[in-house]
Specification:
Length: 334
């Protein structure tokens, strides 16, 4: 791999600024905060900014970058754009990075372009590796369960990816507690343990507390919640309306304006608790996710270096009193 870069990572990046947490009972540790590439790295985004975010993340000790085949827009463009940056700026640091990708959602037309068949998953992984310009990913996920494909086939495709040397570990995402339990057991029988589950989890979305976290803890499987800031709702982004450059303000953003309106009173109430903790709302929301014993890492998004730097400050105040947790529960369940 060539390396014509002016980027020189901060030599102090492993000085303890970022705590690394063991992923389940595996040998792999992940940074407490990981960076996701769903938004902000596609063809419609400012790629100078995208590159700055990747550099700053690595300097802050964020060693885990999370992709999927369909991230963009257009689908695939996040892997293409960042593949170039990985090659030019990070090729000397490949062994310091945990890079994941996924397949499950629609990626190409025809009967083999989505869901969970062996045909789709292994073809998609080959495509992701080409776009990312990598020989292997560290983690390959089934992005969502497929109600029409036998779970054995989907899990078998993940195991094959490892046997082919195209993935070091495998994971599942958006699987219910019951399906996760079955998937974990099938993978175990195949000799390829499930490393990690990637569910949505944040102050507004607590479904994993109803059984999944117990299953993950009992089986030694890690957990990396996505959208821990509820796509930006759990920050100060929307306190004075919907900025044009925000996810809810952009046409291609996945956050609906209506969601902002529905949640704004709760967001303000949560902010007042964060203030008493002398923490930003985003920091409190991330600390809250990281307090959960099954959670290995919080998988954030960031549209600027400033957001990344703000979010990392959560690590300075991770503890909650019982009173704070009760007050938070009361607000979110109202
Ligand atoms: N497995 C799955 O099905 C699945 C689904 C979704 C996501 N994911 C993964 O999870 C990652 C994170 O998801 P997400 O982007 O929804 O996470 P998130 O951390 O909940 O939201 C990130 C967005 O919040 C805003 N933000 C972040 N920090 C901020 C701060 N300090 N102050 C103000 N605003 C802030 C930014 O939006 P603005 O654009 O408004 O600045 C940013 O893009 C994705 O990139 C992807 O890797 C996986």
């Amino acid at each position: 791999m060539s390396n014509n870069t002016s980027y020189h990572p901060d030599p102090e990046r492993y000085d303890g600024r970022m705590p690394y947490r063991r992923c389940g009972n595996s040998g792999l540790k992940l940074p407490s905060i990981s960076l996701g590439f769903w938004h902000n790295f596609g063809d419609l985004d400012d790629l100078v900014q995208s590159k700055r975010i990747m550099h700053r993340a690595f300097d802050l000790g964020i060693t885990h970058f999370d992709f999927a085949n369909n991230y963009g827009p257009p689908a695939g463009s996040a892997e293409i754009n960042c593949g170039k940056i990985l090659k030019s700026d990070f090729s000397n640091h490949r062994d310091e990075l945990v890079i994941s990708s996924k397949a499950g959602y629609h990626m190409w037309d025809g009967p083999y372009g989505e869901w969970g068949s062996r045909k789709y998953l292994l073809s998609s992984l080959n495509q992701s590796l080409k776009r990312l310009q990598l020989d292997y990913v560290d983690i390959f996920y089934s992005h969502r369960p497929d109600p029409e494909t036998p779970l054995e086939e989907t899990m078998g495709a993940l195991a094959t990816a490892v046997q082919q040397g195209k993935a070091l570990y495998v994971g599942i995402s958006n699987y219910s507690a019951e399906l996760a339990d079955s998937a974990i057991s099938i993978l175990k029988d195949m000799g390829v343990p499930c490393l990690i589950h990637q569910p949505k989890y944040n102050l507004f979305e607590r479904w994993i507390e109803g059984g999944l976290t117990d299953i993950l803890l009992a089986n030694g499987v890690g957990c990396i919640p996505f959208s821990p800031l509820a796509q930006g709702l759990l920050t100060e982004r929307y306190l004075d309306g919907i900025p044009a450059d925000s996810r809810a303000g952009k046409e291609h953003g996945y956050l609906q304006k209506s969601e902002v309106k529905i949640k704004i009173d709760k967001i303000r109430a949560l902010k007042s608790i964060a203030e008493k903790r002398e923490q930003s709302l985003a920091n409190m929301a991330l600390a809250w996710v990281l307090r959960q014993p099954s959670v290995t890492s919080a998988l954030i998004g960031a549209s600027s270096v400033e957001q990344l730097e703000d979010n990392i400050q959560c690590l300075n105040q991770l503890e909650f009193t019982a009173g704070e947790l009760a007050a938070i529960d009361q607000i979110v369940s109202a």
